[in-house]
Amino acid sequence: MPLYSSEAIVLRKIDYRDADRIVTFLTPDRGKLAGLARGARRLKSRFGPYLETLTHGTLIYYDREGKNLIHVNHFDILHSFRKLREDLFRSASGQYLAELVLGLLPEREAAPETFQLLLQTLDRLQKGVETEPILRIFEIRLLVLSGFAPRVESCVRCGGQAAPFGFSVEQGGVVCRDCRSSTVAGVRPVSRGVLRFWEQALALKEERFDRVRLEGKLNRELRDLLHHYYRHLLGREIRSFVFLERLRKEIAGLTPQRENGTQ
Amino acid sequence: MEASSLNRLIEELKRLPGIGTKTAQRLAFFLMKVPKERALGLARAIEEVKEKVRFCRRCGNLSENDLCGICSDSRRDAALICVVQEAMDVLAIDRMGEYRGVFHVLHGALSPIDNIGPDELNLRPLMERLEETEVREVILATNPTIEGEATAMYLARLIHAKRGIKVSRIAHGIPMGGHLEYADEVTLSKALEGRREIQ
User: Fold this and answer.
1) What are B135-182's pLDDT values in tens digits?
2) Do A48 and B158 touch (CB under 8 A)?
C-alpha cells in the first residue's frame, strides 16, 4: 500500500462511528480527497486538534487502489489560522469558501491554483483585511479555475457590446440590450461597475488584493449575482452563505462599515 | 426459522455505534445463552427508555419528567447556566461534583456546511430563560472545535446584545497529567493565553 505526502487544507470533517472521522482535504496535486482518520475524536488522538476545518498542514496518507477513501496516517500542522477561528464572521467566511470548493471541485483532480487561492484567501481573512472584496475575488477566481466562469466580456448570444447588459445563469453569462428582449425570463440587470470589478478581480496581481476597495452598493449587487450563479451551479442553496447573511443582519447589523467589508 | 431470528438480532446489534459484525455475533450468542429473564430484562429496559425518556422542558437535558433532576433541584444555583452541546456533556460535567449551577443543552453546534444553523439548535428556550429568570453568569462549554467556538462566539454576542449577563468560556489547555513536550502548538498557545496568576 503506497504512502503519499502532500500539503493539504481541511475542508470538512464528519464524525464516523465512535471515535473516527471522515475528513475531506484539498491538496494541490490530487485536488479534493476524502479520508478516514481513525481515532481522530479521542482526547489523546495522535491527530490532536489538527484535523479541524480550515487547518493547513502536511498530510501523510495511504491510498489503496479501488477504495474511495484514503487512510489518513498523519497530519502535521503548518497554519492553524487560529485568529480566523476566533472571529465569528471571518470563521463563517472561511467555512463558506470551503463549501464552495467542496461543491465545485471534482475528487482526485490536481488543483494547485485553487489550493493556492484558498490558502492565500484564508491568510488574508486571518490578517484582518477587508472581508467583502476578498470574498468576491475568491468567488470570481474559483469560477475561472473550476471551469465554470460565465462569459462577461461580451453578450453570450451575439457577442455584442450593447449596454445595458443583463445576466442570465441559464445562458452562462451576460446578455446585451438587443438580445435581452428575446431571451427567456430570469435575466438579471448587471451594472458596468460589476463587470469592471469582475475584470479587475481576474487581472489583479495577488500582492495588490489587500488594497482593493468595493463600495457597499456595488458589493451587494455583485454578492447577489454571484450567489445566484453559484446556487444555480450547485443546484442547491449555499448553506454557509445563508448563515453569513444572517450574521450580517442579525448580529452585526447592516452598518455601512460592514457593508464596505470592514470588520 | 431460528436462524433468521438470530440473524435479525445480529443485524439490529450491528446498527449500534462501535459494533461490527463479529461483536454483534458475540453479543447475540451471549444473549442466547443467558437465562431468558436476563435477556428480556435488557429488552424491557430498552423499551422503557424509549417510552419514558424525553427532553427536559427547560434545559433540553434527558429526563423522565417534564423537568429534569437538575432543573427541579432547588439546591442548584439557577442563576448560573452552563451551556453544553450534548446531554452527554451534562453527565461529564456533573460527574466531577463541583459544579452546582444548572445546564442548557444545545443539541449540536453551528455548522452551516452541515445544514446546522441557529434555528436547528436549542437556542430560543435559552434566550427565553435569560429573559424570564434572574441569571448571573452563562458559562459556554461547547467543544473547542471550529463549530464549538463559532457557537460560543455566536451565543456570546446574542447574550451581550440582550442584557448585561456575565458570559464566560471554559478554559482550554494542557490536560492534567499531560506533558508539555507532547502538547501541540494550538493547545499550548491557548494554554499560555489562558494563564492565570498564582497568589
Assistant:
1) 999 999 999 889 999 999 999 998 987 777 999 999 988 888 888 887
2) no
Q: Does A239 contact chain B (CB < 8 Å)?
A: yes
Please list the helix, strand and coil fractions of chain A in percent, rounded to the nearest 5, in that order. Answer: 40, 20, 35
Instruction: Show which of residues 24-53 on chain B sit within 8 Å of chain A, judged by CB atoms.
Output: none
Quickly name the fold that domain A82-263 has: de novo design (two linked rop proteins) (1.20.1440)
Evaluate whether the domain defined by A1-80 bears CATH number 1.10.3470.10: no
B161 contacts A99? CB cut-off 8 A: no
- In this predicted complex, what is the ipTM? 0.84
Instruction: Report the residue from B113, B157, B187 with minimal CB separation from A98.
Output: B113
Q: Does B54 touch chain A (CB under 8 A)?
A: no
Query: What SS3 class is residue B87?
Result: helix
Q: pTM (2 decimals)? A: 0.86
